[in-house]
């Protein structure tokens, strides 16, 4: 059953009517409804184009959070071979919100790390809705150190509303873990590519995305805080999330103008959830295009380029 977002309700009605007609035809073979159903399909396609033409920042947030979007696990299974997961931070526990390990991408040995939200109630609880605890960031650090030691490029897949803000996480050094993960990203002498596949929330995302190259799916978002959180702080009213989303400039298009993001990856019409295979294939092509030139660079040049990127970040947008 398709999950429709709030702004897609008119579309849901039309597609629902088309499906009802076809269900009636299946029950009664003498009925010929294909012409009427095709007309409804055409109307639905036109409406879908209108809805996704120039989405507002808040609507992009809704699409980025869509439960049927492909998640980290889906990308790893589709794009990587010989994936061998590595667990634990060798200190406290294994955080299931963060998954990663050794793999091959186009036969190139790599380390892949990402945040996994889960796809149903059980897996979402197990994965803590993609919100990592300190041990998750320390696991990522361990995997990045492994990659640096053996000269393996690192690919990160970012999809988190933010780091977990619970009492236990704070007691175990959440902010320190995030800071050290960010530091490790910046100090790697191997190529680091990050793809924002859904939500890129706060320091929880930056700790994985301080990369040589950062790409975002067309309808993903990347921000220092959620629109709801921003609205609660600035206006003391979470219902002003629409205004906050616009002010935060969290869309892929805005961030590319600012120089925060290097590439915007197109999504199928209606978002990645409408054609998961096409969206995953687009991400694979983007990773290949970004990784190939980096693999030709020497370790010191990779480190220098990453440092320069972050020192210059935002200058394009300020100059404009």
Automatic annotation (TrEMBL):
Job of this protein: Component of the acetyl coenzyme A carboxylase (ACC) complex. First, biotin carboxylase catalyzes the carboxylation of biotin on its carrier protein (BCCP) and then the CO(2) group is transferred by the carboxyltransferase to acetyl-CoA to form malonyl-CoA.
Keyword Zinc attributed: no
First and last residue of the signal peptide: none
Subunit structure: Acetyl-CoA carboxylase is a heterohexamer composed of biotin carboxyl carrier protein (AccB), biotin carboxylase (AccC) and two subunits each of ACCase subunit alpha (AccA) and ACCase subunit beta (AccD).
Every CoA carboxyltransferase C-terminal domain range: 39-293
Subcellular localization, as worded in the UniProt entry: Cytoplasm
Catalytic reaction(s) noted: N(6)-carboxybiotinyl-L-lysyl-[protein] + acetyl-CoA = N(6)-biotinyl-L-lysyl-[protein] + malonyl-CoA
Family matches, as Gene3D superfamilies: 2-enoyl-CoA Hydratase, Chain A, domain 1
One GO biological process term: malonyl-CoA biosynthetic process
Keyword Metal-binding found: no
Family per record: Belongs to the AccA family.
Any one cellular-component term (Gene Ontology): acetyl-CoA carboxylase complex
Pathway note: Lipid metabolism; malonyl-CoA biosynthesis; malonyl-CoA from acetyl-CoA: step 1/1
PROSITE patterns tied to this protein: COA_CT_CTER
Gene: accA
Record keywords: ATP-binding, Cytoplasm, Fatty acid biosynthesis, Fatty acid metabolism, Lipid biosynthesis, Lipid metabolism, Nucleotide-binding, Transferase
InterPro entries: Acetyl_CoA_COase_a_su, ClpP/crotonase-like_dom_sf, COA_CT_C
An example Gene Ontology molecular-function term: carboxyl- or carbamoyltransferase activity
E.C. no: 2.1.3.15
PANTHER family named in the record: ACETYL-COENZYME A CARBOXYLASE CARBOXYL TRANSFERASE SUBUNIT ALPHA, ACETYL-COENZYME A CARBOXYLASE CARBOXYL TRANSFERASE SUBUNIT ALPHA, CHLOROPLASTIC
One Pfam family this sequence matches: ACCA
Identification of the protein by name: Acetyl-coenzyme A carboxylase carboxyl transferase subunit alpha
């Amino acid at each position: 059953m398709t999950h429709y977002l709030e702004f897609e309700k008119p579309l849901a009605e039309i597609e629902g009517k088309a499906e009802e007609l076809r269900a009636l035809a299946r029950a009664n073979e003498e009925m010929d409804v294909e012409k009427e159903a095709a007309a409804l399909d055409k109307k639905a396609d036109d409406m879908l184009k209108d809805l996704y033409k120039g989405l507002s920042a808040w609507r992009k947030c809704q699409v980025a959070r869509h439960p049927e979007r492909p998640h980290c696990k889906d990308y790893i299974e589709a794009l990587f071979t010989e994936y061998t997961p590595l667990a634990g931070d060798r200190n406290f526990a294994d955080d299931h919100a963060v998954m990663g390990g050794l793999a091959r991408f186009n036969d190139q040995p790599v380390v892949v790390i990402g945040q996994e939200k889960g796809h149903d109630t059980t897996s979402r609880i197990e994965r803590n809705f993609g919100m990592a605890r300190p041990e998750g960031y320390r696991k990522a650090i361990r995997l990045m150190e492994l990659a640096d030691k053996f000269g393996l490029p690192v690919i990160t897949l970012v999809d988190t509303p933010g780091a977990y803000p619970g009492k236990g996480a704070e007691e175990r050094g959440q902010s320190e873990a995030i800071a050290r993960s960010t530091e490790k990203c910046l100090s790697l002498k191997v190529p680091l590519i990050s793809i924002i596949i859904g939500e890129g929330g706060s320091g929880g995302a930056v700790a994985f995305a301080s990369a040589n190259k950062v790409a975002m799916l067309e309808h993903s978002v990347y921000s220092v805080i959620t629109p709801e959180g921003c609205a609660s702080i600035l206006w003391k009213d979470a219902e002003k999330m629409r205004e906050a989303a616009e002010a935060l400039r969290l869309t892929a298009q805005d961030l590319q103008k600012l120089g925060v993001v290097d590439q915007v990856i197109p999504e199928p019409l209606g978002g990645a959830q409408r054609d998961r295979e096409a969206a995953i294939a687009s991400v694979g092509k983007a990773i290949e295009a970004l990784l190939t030139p980096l693999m030709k660079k020497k370790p010191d040049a990779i480190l220098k380029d990453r440092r320069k990127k972050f020192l210059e970040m935002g200058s394009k947008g300020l100059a404009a």
